[in-house]
């Protein structure tokens, strides 16, 4: 009776790699690791330079391994974006819970949480808002105005709008303006354009709050209530 040896030294390289990868990354661990490595690569060189072969090399797996989870680079970037959206939404909700029912504090919390997320997770942030020029087809639910955190932002602004604390054509229009401000500031920080890229935590915190207060002061309207937004907790 002929018996085939299963000793690793007798197996073809591709089969050995598959066995080693299965032993090292199981139950979805490889998928998670590939996303981690992708984030590292994006932080270093940007999403445009990302390749599945390069990710496989960084992860220490065969060049074919990523294709078991992601058919192409676009699928990997979408996975990174989905993870980022979930993380941002979780952070905003956590801070809103601490802000209790004060509508102005909740409005401020949303803006501050957005900026803080971008600073803490720059690679996620960049992929979440990847430029269409990169040729990535963004799923409808990941387009900025379709994401849960944007709808949450509109909900908080709507409460302020109903109370007359914010003036504007509509809560959606106000949200777009506020979003443009916090998004632009976030990019300036993570791209190192502010103060030559050197911005200490105290200065950054002051600028964040000043930015949102300036927006609030303009959006409340000439006849709006003279209310100073409270400093958000968290």
Automatic annotation (TrEMBL):
Domain HTH tetR-type: from-to ranges: 28-88
Gene3D superfamilies on file: Tetracycline Repressor, domain 2
According to the UniProt record, which residues make up the DNA-binding region? Answer: 51-70
User: Any idea which UniProt keywords this protein has?
Assistant: DNA-binding, Transcription, Transcription regulation
A Pfam family matched in the record? TetR_C_33
Signal sequence extent: none
Q: Which domain of life is it from?
A: Bacteria
Q: What name has this protein been given in UniProt?
A: Tetracycline transcriptional regulator tetr-related c-terminal
Q: Which organism is it from?
A: Desulfoluna butyratoxydans
Q: Which PANTHER family match?
A: HTH-TYPE TRANSCRIPTIONAL REGULATOR RUTR, TETR-FAMILY REGULATORY PROTEIN
